[in-house]
Amino acid sequence: MMAQEAPIIEVRELETRIDTKMGPIKAVDGVSFSVRPGQTLGIVGESGSGKSITALSLLRLVPKPAAKITSGSIILDGEEILTASEARMREIRGGKISMILQDPQTSLNPVFTIGSQVIEAIATHVKASPLELLERAIEALKRVRVADPKRRVEDYPHQMSGGMKQRVVGAIALGSNPKVLIADEPTTALDVTIQAQYLKLLKDIQTETGLAIIFITHDFGVVARMCDQVAVMYAGRVVEQGPVRQIFSDPAHPYTKALLNSVPSVEEDVKRLYSIRGQPPAFWDMPAGCRFEPRCDKAMPKCKTEYPPIYESPDGDHHCASCWELESTEWTQSRY
Ligand SMILES: Nc1ncnc2c1ncn2[C@@H]1O[C@H](COP(=O)(O)OP(=O)(O)OP(=O)(O)O)[C@@H](O)[C@H]1O
Ligand code: SF4
Ligand SMILES: [Mg+2]
Questions:
Q1: What residue spans define the domains of the chain?
Q2: Any idea which ligand is nearest the CA of 280?
Q3: Which fold has domain 2-96+178-333?
Q4: Contact 166, 108 (CB under 8 A)
């Protein structure tokens, strides 16, 4: 069974610092997770919690020169990528791990045909004749269900709808059969119906290929539909993670509970994201203790001074959370 397979990507204690006007910050501060082939991990959390910098760190594409990965480990398909050469990273990006961003507008070049852009992505990883590359590009477009791909390769991005453009971005990302796909809010620019089709497409491709997906989203509906596991990020750290079902039915961390309670109902303006009292702390002025303490109804004195350890659920399902409240429960301190 897939669930027993070894993780295809294993991230341990990842730390990424950024030099900002306010001083150096740890935008990613000790983040650990792993994803197995054929599985999807959702990363959720308020704006600015470090989701995108985490994703970019996995590709070693953090914003230069301000940002730098300062410690940790990323094992991708058995290989430590934090110490890999830049030349090796160019093979790995697209070849083993790819990314789809929110806005197809910024991912596609308006002056080249979509065929040439898919071909270019494949040619980085595959040595083949121009005709073979064209055939592979048509195959890649077929896989993301672009109708009549033989004709569409001649089109320019502006001749396609937003949903179709995002499919082309998918074809570029998946053109060389990577093992891990990172999707950073890939459907936020799409309307609801096109979004649903796109999510189904990703799921179908995952079933066909055993792709592991890391799905970054603000939308718990998308998490419920797409993900097996969820990691909840707050102020640069993962505060809770575990199987989707457990996180939804039995969230352990007050922040996760607040996030779930703040999800707008369908009648409300869906553009409104989370509405939790107060603001996340500034990265350059982190509380010494629990970072959620200033907003937490359950806070106790030591929450102010000591960061809580990670506790693991007694259910043996790898459901973990960092909260002092769990100290006096059946949850046990985790080795992670
Ligand atoms: N290029 C940059 N220069 C300076 N600071 C940055 C840069 N990119 C991100 N940051 C900071 O790093 C922190 C994490 O940002 P990140 O983009 O990862 O958040 P996010 O969780 O993806 O948010 P969103 O949901 O809005 O996309 C934020 O405080 C952000 O201001
Ligand atoms: S550690 Fe304390 S402040 Fe932090 S979430 Fe738990 S109870 Fe709240
Ligand atoms: Mg982001």
A1: 2-96+178-333
A2: 1
A3: Rossmann fold (3.40.50)
A4: no
